[in-house]
Amino acid sequence: MITIYQKPTCSTCRSVYEALKASGVDFDAVDYYVDPIPREKLIELVRKMGVRPAVLLRVKEPIYQTLGLADRTLSDDEVIDLLVKYPDLLQRPIVEHGEQAILARPAERLREIL
Predict the structure, then answer these.
(1) How does strand 100-103 pair with strand 2-6?
(2) Looking at the domain that runs over 2-112, which CATH code has it been given?
(3) Would you kindly state where each structural domain of the chain is located, as residue ranges?
(4) The pLDDT of residue 53
(5) Is the pTM of the predicted complex or chain greater than 0.85?
(6) How far apart are CA 112 and CA 91, in angstroms?
(7) For 60, how many CA atoms within 13 A lie in the half-sphere containing its CB?
(8) How far, in whole angstroms, is CA 74 from its chain's centroid?
(9) pLDDT over 90 (residue 114)
(10) Dihedral over alpha carbons 41, 43, 48, 54 (to 10 degrees)
(11) pLDDT tens column, 6-15
(12) Catalytic residue IDs
């Protein structure tokens, strides 16, 4: 089963969603603003992506600036906590398929997981 974690108003998320529909695969779509990603699940997704949590920070978001995150050194746990508390900070969309997950940005990366 494939799951896309998305913000439906995001243009890249919409592109990936439409590509999944067009491919004919079964998938679930999670709007993580309505159904927040639990901390444990976010840790699992990061592990499946094989990246550090900081890779998922949206550094151009106003909340990133407001919190002064550019001037701080954050542990992986602190980044995870911030991503859970402030969903605007999370890069999107994240696509999960079994033991793999990717940040499907740009949308063409979806091919890596299908």
Answers:
(1) unpaired
(2) 3.40.30.10
(3) 2-112
(4) 97
(5) yes
(6) 18
(7) 1
(8) 19
(9) no
(10) 130
(11) 999 999 999 9
(12) 10
Cβ 5 vs Cβ 96: under 8 Å? yes
pLDDT digits (tens, 9 = 90+) for 50-97: 999 999 999 999 999 999 999 999 999 999 999 999 999 999 999 999
Residues in the chain, total? 114
Q: What angle do CA 27, 85, 71 make, to 5 degrees?
A: 120
18/16 Cα distance (integer angstroms)? 5
Phi/psi-derived region of residue 98, left when phi > 0, alpha when psi is between -120 and 50, beta in every other case: left
* Residue 93: exposure state from Cβ atoms within 10 A (0-12, 13-18, ≥19): buried
Q: Can you name the residues that pair with 27 across neighbouring β-strands?
A: 2
Give the position of tokens 């974690």. 5
Distance in angstroms (rounded) separating the CA atoms of residues 48 and 100:
5
